[in-house]
Structures are given as C-alpha cells and as structure tokens.
Amino acid sequence: MSSWMEKDPGMLLKRSFLFGMAGIILCLATVFNNYFEIIALPHGPINGIGIALQLFGLSIAVLVLRRRKIEEALKDKAKKMILVLSVALIYFFLVI
C-alpha cells in the first residue's frame, strides 16, 4: 500500500475536488431542504458528513501544497482549492 505523499499530485487534486464538491452538495441540499421543507430529514448527520467530506478535500489540497518540487500550475490549483473549500466551510458553519 502506497503512501499519500507518493501519489500523483494531479490525481490528488482531482480527488480533493470530488470530495469537496460532494461535501458542498450535501450541505447545500440540507440548506435548501431547511428553507423549502421538501423532505422531513434530520439535518445534523447529513451536515456532518458534508462538512467531513469538505475537510477531507481540504486536507488533500493542503497535502499537495506542502509537497516539494511540484509544478507551479498544480500549486496554484491547490491554493484555489484551499480557498474555495475554506470559504465554503465558513459559510456552512455560519448557516448551521
């Protein structure tokens, strides 16, 4: 089993994007359901999973950014991913 530090940075950023977007979509679904009351569901567990997915995506992006000897384009993508996921986390913490 290989370490996360040995994996390709491009692939790690794709995974970071997927985890982050899945978390944002889950949290947005609960926000919309809270306002429009479409389905009677407990929002706590769904928000928790969404925030956990966002934090996991954020940690992967930070892992890529901390690497040595990576391309400048990948560093810029990692910085943008960190910014987007940080703002999304702050928003969902304030909405909840």
Automatic annotation (TrEMBL):
Keywords: Membrane, Transmembrane, Transmembrane helix
Transmembrane segments: 12-32, 44-65, 77-94
Superkingdom of this protein's organism: Bacteria
Keyword set includes Transmembrane helix: yes
Name of the protein described by the UniProt record: Uncharacterized protein
